[in-house]
Amino acid sequence: MAEFFPHGILFAGTPFEFNRVQLVRLIILVVVLTVMAIIASRAKLVPGRAQSVVEMIIEFVDHSIIENTLGLREGKKYAPMLVTMFFFILSMNLAGVIPGLNLAGTSVIGLPLLAALWTFVVYIFFGIKKHGLGGYLKHETMPPGVPKPIYLLLIPIEFLQLAVIRWASLTIRLLANMVAGHIMLVVFIGLTQGLLFSGSALIAVAPFSGALAIGIYGFEIFVAALQAFIFTILTAVYINMATSDEH
């Protein structure tokens, strides 16, 4: 657990402390921005391998998330944000399986919380922009077709969901998956190492433990992509709920 709370590299003990987690995030950010800038500057009508991969990911986000959730016309307005969010979370998640980094940028609460609050601000802003403050609160907390006495119970629940539960659940879901994945990898890799150097008959079990570690490593790559997808599609859903004509 100490890996999630490393000692400061610079400015230790101050509000500006810079530690290994932030270093991992900075490395991933610089690498992704540099690679994307190079690919964009060399973009061709007939794409090369790297350009094809990036375009495939963008098309996946565009078709699977944006168009299916927000529609073709409305989706264009939010596409830059949602594509950026997907790449951002995916790259930070994958840092956990990159040798030398070995820690997801989203495995400490600051980054998941920041991304969730970004989502919160966007859907609140566009919801109020479309419906007005009062109209938006009514739109989100008073769904039509409900018996009036039920609103006494429904309005506080819906308001709590709007103001707290949505962004909190986004934060906790992403954070918990990345923390759990890192712990599982460490446990099985550490177990394999311990068995190999145990100096006993337990060495025979080490290959099985190692195979599990490799399996979990592959599973973590899948989870990293899945969590980026879930976070992004929920963001699109919340925006759609805030800006739709009906609840």
From TrEMBL:
Q: Which UniProt keywords apply?
A: ATP synthesis, Cell membrane, CF(0), Hydrogen ion transport, Ion transport, Membrane, Transmembrane, Transmembrane helix, Transport
The membrane topology noted for this protein in its Swiss-Prot or TrEMBL record is: Multi-pass membrane protein
User: By what name is this protein known?
Assistant: ATP synthase subunit a
Q: Which gene encodes it?
A: atpB
Give the UniProt subcellular location, in the record's own words. Answer: Cell membrane; Membrane
Species, as recorded: Brachybacterium endophyticum
Note the InterPro entries from the entry: ATP_synth_F0_asu, ATP_synth_F0_asu_bact/mt, F0_ATP_A_sf
Stretches that traverse the bilayer: 23-41, 78-98, 104-128, 149-168, 180-205, 217-239
Q: Name one GO molecular function term.
A: proton-transporting ATP synthase activity, rotational mechanism
